[in-house]
């Protein structure tokens, strides 16, 4: 069985370098049963020697040049980044990222040698047509991505209403949505090799259910990843599943 992917999205936290160092230290363990990826703000990516993989929360869709304020996926790769989260609903909402822009970032990230984590998910008002929403997000952002490259991508299903709200997606719904995503992907690819993750109010109580009962291949964790004790507990609970 493939190791689950557990991704920590620190978002725009913490505010000081010292606190970031403390966070890194608090979770700097060797994880044998799961691949753990920490995605801090860009400026902390270089701050610590870590035992886990590192990822960014965004990247430019351009390689280099006159793009003030942007960070190239090539620069991320060069400092040891392995993953990049793309298309998070906060990027879509506050920075007007469209599926087309996200698709360009995915392709540039792949070209640079990064593994993209593509976030998709419906807003509360779209609840009655989840299939259409997810299909559009997947098909438009993966347009032009080859089978070989698609295998490097993980899809993170994050219903917008579950992010940071404390109301996580019911396990049954997560299970049927994972199947739906697998079906959409299989219209484009041999989809078995593409990981599907769940994100949205994950904590140490519900984390392993998404893997064990909903059939997810990993998790994308926001709030709970800022608490080392809780985050380690999540990893421990999931590792237990893989020890059976
Ligand atoms: P949350 O965030 O775990 O705090 O809900 C998840 C995310 O936005 O990736």
Q: Can you offer a commentary on this structure?
A:
With 244 residues, this protein is an alpha/beta fold. It has one domain: TIM Barrel (Alpha-Beta Barrel), CATH 3.20.20.70. It has 9 helices and 8 strands. It has helices spanning 17-27, 73-78, 89-94, 99-112, 130-141, 147-150, 171-186, 207-212, 228-241; strands spanning 5-9, 35-39, 53-56, 83-86, 115-120, 154-157, 195-199, 218-221. An 8-stranded parallel beta barrel has the order 1-2-3-4-5-6-7-8. Helix 4 crosses helix 5. The protein is globular. The N and C termini lie close together (11 Å). The model has no long low-confidence stretch (mean pLDDT 96). The structure holds 2-phosphoglycolic acid (PGA). 2-phosphoglycolic acid is lined by residues 9, 158, 163-164, 199-202, 220-224.
